Amino acid sequence: MARWLEIYRAGPLRVDRSSTGHLYVPRAAVSVCGTIQTDILPRVFTQEHQAAGLLARFLLAAPPEPARNWAAIRQAQGRNIGDLVARFEALRELDLPAEGEQPRALGLTPDAAELYGNWFVEHEARRRDTEPGPWRAALAKLEEIPGRLALVLALAQSEKPVDVDADTMRCAIKLTNWFRAEGERVYSLLVETPEARADRELVEWVGRHPDGVTAREVAQGSRRYRGEGGTERAEADLRRLVKGDLLTPEERQGARGPAVTVYSPALRGEAPIPSTSTGFCVSQREKGKPVDVDSLEERETWAV
């Protein structure tokens, strides 16, 4: 773990083994990208890893699963990723500093520096208002992410950029805000109680039905409500989530009978997360996101 913490800042790495000999890398940097099931995440990143700040060094994302549309699936065309692969290859071919030379730094234009400064003030206020714990530590690490992402974006646009301009910094800040919202979602999942998890899963299940659902439909479609009294139990849970501002009720006239109550998520476009004991959840989440979650194929937690 100590080596991974050092690698995050491209620090020196020394390996001494009797079988392979001595190895010294003055600036060891490793990029990691992959997926992991949300339930397995806390088993891999234990309390010790979280306390040491290892998990805080990853950008996490767990977008809610959108409703699937069969017509859209049949009409979907394979994406042309040739340009993306070419860009990755160009980045890999960039010249590294010669041995003994320091890496070349990119400056910020005045407009880019102002954008980052304004974002930093807002982000720092958010960090101070968050209770001590793993998420607050993650927020502290996030303050440098716009600079890291801006560097990647600048190099992706030009092999020899001079400075990071305002447009590049603006994109980097939007990406950081998205990862901040997603990170808060993931950290909430790590500490949620079984009751809170059941509520979250119910809200997400309701959110997968664009036209809303009734208590009877919930009882018929959700395994936890099967059996005698399922509709009544579903109705009670739905009403409780309405009081918690997680669902919105709407009275609609039934097709062959009296009016029925139809429930929908309180926040359209994303499945809200019920409050947890940590205090960081809905109130601090980003309302808008620059990434279209409907286009994401992975439904597991992303770690970058």
Give the topology, please.
Layout: H1 2-8, E1 13-17, E2 21-25, E3 34-36, H2 41-44, H3 47-52, E4 60-61, H4 70-75, H5 82-92, E5 107-108, H6 110-128, H7 134-142, H8 145-157, E6 163-164, H9 166-191, H10 194-207, H11 215-221, H12 230-243, E7 247-252, E8 260-265, E9 301-303
Parallel strand pairs: 5-6
Antiparallel strand pairs: 1-2, 3-9, 4-9, 7-8
What's this, in brief?
The protein has twelve helices and nine strands. By secondary structure, the protein is of the alpha+beta class. The protein folds into two domains: 31-68 and 81-96 and 103-192 and 277-303, no CATH class; 194-265, Orthogonal Bundle (Arc Repressor Mutant, subunit A), CATH 1.10.10.10.
Explain how this protein is built.
Helices cover 45% and strands 11% of the residues. The chain has helices at residues 2-8, 41-44, 47-52, 70-75, 82-92, 110-128, 134-142, 145-157, 166-191, 194-207, 215-221, 230-243; strands at residues 13-17, 21-25, 34-36, 60-61, 107-108, 163-164, 247-252, 260-265, 301-303. Strand 1 (13-17) and strand 2 form a beta hairpin. The longest helix is centred in the middle third of the chain and has 26 residues, at 166-191. It is of the alpha+beta class. Helix 6 (110-128) runs parallel beside helix 9 (166-191), helix 7 runs antiparallel to helix 9 (166-191) and helix 11 crosses helix 12. The chain has two domains: 31-68 and 81-96 and 103-192 and 277-303, no CATH class; 194-265, Arc Repressor Mutant, subunit A.
